[in-house]
Amino acid sequence: MRSMSRIPFPTAPGADDHPSLALVNSAVTLPGGHEADELGSPAEATAWLVGHRLVPAETTLLAYCQGQLTTLRGNLRAIFTARVAGTAPEPEAVEGVNRALVKVPSALLLHFDDDSGLHRVPRHPVTQLVEHAMAQIAEDAAALLTGGQAGMVAQCESEPCDRFFLRTHARRCWCSTRCGDRVRAARAYARKLERAQAG
């Protein structure tokens, strides 16, 4: 199975506003037995956190921190899957998210520089930076899955895609037009094949 780091789809609806949705979608199964994982190495996990403005740009994650982040992703994915299926989530997944929620380091520190003036920054050891980012993601997930948008959480119905999104339209079944186009093309091909076999 070939793996790549970049997800070749546009961002799923809702993922720009919800870092928890972005995290669960940071790994996806692609057609042809391929997988994409944006957290596949410490450097990729760092880039993902920096890109989502969850850690400062000069952060460098260690393998341990990458492992913590991918574990949170697995726990969140289990909870999102249970929510969409209407089943009870695994207690271990809930406990894993709760652990992330309570590990928040101290408040953001006050900082001054000539470019930005006074502002607040997370100046902590790398492990605390990651724990702070994970707490923000876990908080977002808890708010999303228990709030007014909880019923909008859906999983892409295009096989083998396994991304989640917010169903902003009642008829929306796919995380992207690319997935929708693939399903429509497969249906058209099946109809054509059926007609050819019939006659």
Topology readout:
Blueprint: E1 3-4, H1 19-24, E2 27-30, E3 34-37, H2 42-51, H3 63-85, H4 91-102, E4 109-113, E5 117-121, H5 126-146, E6 153-155, E7 164-166, H6 177-198
Helix pairs in contact: 3-4, 3-5, 4-5
Task: Please characterize this protein's 3D structure.
The mean pLDDT is 87. The longest helix is centred in the middle third of the chain and has 23 residues, at 63-85. The chain is an alpha+beta fold. The strands form three sheets. The protein has a three-stranded mixed β-sheet with strand order 1-3-2, with no helix packed on it. It is elongated. β6 and β7 (164-166) form a beta hairpin. 47% of the residues lie in helices and 13% in strands. α4 (91-102) packs across α5 (126-146).
Whole-angstrom Rg: 19 Å
Q: Determine the oligomeric state from the structure.
A: single chain
Portion of residues within helices: 40-55%
* Beginning-to-end CA distance, first to last residue: 38 Å
Q: In one word, what is the shape?
A: elongated
Largest sheet: 3 strands, mixed
Number of helices: 6
Alpha-beta classification: alpha+beta
Provide mean pLDDT, rounded. 87
Strands, count: 7
Encode the helix/strand succession as letters: EHEEHHHEEHEEH
Amount of beta strand: 5-15%
Strand order of the largest sheet: 1-3-2
Descriptive key words:
elongated; 7 strands; two-stranded antiparallel ribbon
Brief overview, please?
This protein is an alpha+beta fold and 199 residues long.
